Amino acid sequence: MEYRIAAADINPYLAIAAALGSGLWGIEHRIEPDAPVAGNAYDIAHPAERALPRTLSEAADRLAASSVARKLFGDVFVDHYAMTRHWEEREFRKAITDWELARYFEII
């Protein structure tokens, strides 16, 4: 089995903990993996529960709502980590990009 979801800038300790924890959970609960994706995954309509989150905030919401993550890593970690990702997204939304400046100054 391959695990390729982690981003290049992820904390490697969190990536390994998530990969090992999810693998162990699957083994202990006898979860059979779905069929492998063949071809271009972007051209396939995935069920909502299998689609990757589109924003950091959506990912944090999913983490906070995950009973499996809470059992694997504990409520304190899950609540803290999700809260810090929500904070990060709020801070990001405060920034104005060069594209926005160029685009919107052009029309005023």
Summarize the structure.
By secondary structure, the chain is an all-alpha fold. The chain contains five helices and no strands.
Report what the structure shows.
The chain is mainly α and 108 residues long. The chain is 58% helix and 0% strand. It contains 5 helices and no strands. The protein has helices spanning 12-28, 56-65, 67-73, 75-94, 98-106. α2 packs antiparallel against α4. The longest helix has 20 residues, at 75-94. The chain is extended and about 60 Å long. The termini are far apart.
Q: Which descriptors would you attach to this protein?
A:
5 helices, mainly alpha, 108 residues, single chain
What share of the residues does DSSP label as strand, in percent? under 5%
**Strands, count:** 0
N- and C-termini, Cα separation: 54 Å
- The number of helical runs is 5
**Protein structure class:** mainly alpha
Stretches where pLDDT is under 50 for at least 5 consecutive residues are none
Write the layout of secondary structure elements.
Blueprint: H1 12-28, H2 56-65, H3 67-73, H4 75-94, H5 98-106
